[in-house]
Specification:
2 helices, alpha+beta, six-stranded antiparallel sheet
């Protein structure tokens, strides 16, 4: 895991702010290049969204989060072993 991902995810977990290069968090959401790729809802559920970017960096940032494993095989994205279209989803639904 890259240092920027580790620092961002740790700040996100602790609910604190962090910003470096193209990634930032206010402790409630994570943004990459101005796109919100992860957030916690009022019930504490983790939501993610690729924002249309199936890039190495997007996947790397999302993979830093607990319970998230995003990979690509032959152009198809998979979230926790299930096909994923990259649109916003609560991660808990992919962990069952």
């Amino acid at each position: 895991m890259r240092k920027i991902t580790e620092q961002t995810v740790n700040a996100f977990k602790w609910g604190t702010e962090f910003s470096s290069s193209n990634t930032r968090t206010d402790g409630k959401s994570i943004w990459l290049h101005g796109n919100r790729i992860a957030w916690k809802d009022s019930g504490g559920d983790l939501w993610i969204d690729s924002c249309g970017w199936n890039s190495n960096t997007t996947r790397e940032r999302l993979n830093g989060l607990d319970g998230v494993r995003v990979i690509t095989k032959q152009g198809q994205m998979y979230l926790n072993g299930k096909e994923w279209n990259g649109e916003q989803v609560a991660v808990k639904y992919f962990n069952k």
